[in-house]
């Protein structure tokens, strides 16, 4: 059954904040390092492949935004699952909803592990600065995974969380901040070495 249409409250600024957060936020720290490990040929080709898949997905979603309804005329689909149900039927929507939920679970696990590794890396970096690079500075991931998971569970209980406008702005500011920090650290390393490696 399709969800009733809700009033759209987004502005061009909230849309821009979501785009910045999605593009910069999801992979700016680890994606660049991962792609660099592929080298100068496979790395850029992989980035172009990712970009083409993202662009194709965006065009497909744009084409599914509105659908024709014989009784009511044009209908604006409020979600991806709404579009699947309206265009392909209830069985396809049921199957798609299972896949989407599995993907949400996978993303939750991946972000929890990535966050734990990042928090551990920050703590190790601080340890190296304080005690020197000869110190072992070994820390586990379990504590950070539990802490991040607990925060996720608590924050997920906020009612109507997806409609909080301040969240989009804060997420965009954070994405810009750590993208700037990463770029500055990379530039500093290039200046220190005197060459791009």
From TrEMBL:
<feature type="domain" description="Amino acid transporter transmembrane">
    <location>
        <begin position="8"/>
        <end position="190"/>
    </location>
</feature>
<keyword id="KW-0813">Transport</keyword>
<feature type="transmembrane region" description="Helical">
    <location>
        <begin position="12"/>
        <end position="35"/>
    </location>
</feature>
<feature type="transmembrane region" description="Helical">
    <location>
        <begin position="41"/>
        <end position="62"/>
    </location>
</feature>
<keyword id="KW-0812">Transmembrane</keyword>
<feature type="transmembrane region" description="Helical">
    <location>
        <begin position="141"/>
        <end position="159"/>
    </location>
</feature>
<feature type="transmembrane region" description="Helical">
    <location>
        <begin position="165"/>
        <end position="188"/>
    </location>
</feature>
<dbReference type="InterPro" id="IPR013057">
    <property type="entry name" value="AA_transpt_TM"/>
</dbReference>
<protein>
    <recommendedName>
        <fullName>Amino acid transporter transmembrane domain-containing protein</fullName>
    </recommendedName>
</protein>
<keyword id="KW-0029">Amino-acid transport</keyword>
<dbReference type="GO" id="GO:0006865">
    <property type="term" value="P:amino acid transport"/>
</dbReference>
<dbReference type="GO" id="GO:0016020">
    <property type="term" value="C:membrane"/>
</dbReference>
<keyword id="KW-0472">Membrane</keyword>
<dbReference type="Pfam" id="PF01490">
    <property type="entry name" value="Aa_trans"/>
</dbReference>
<keyword id="KW-1133">Transmembrane helix</keyword>
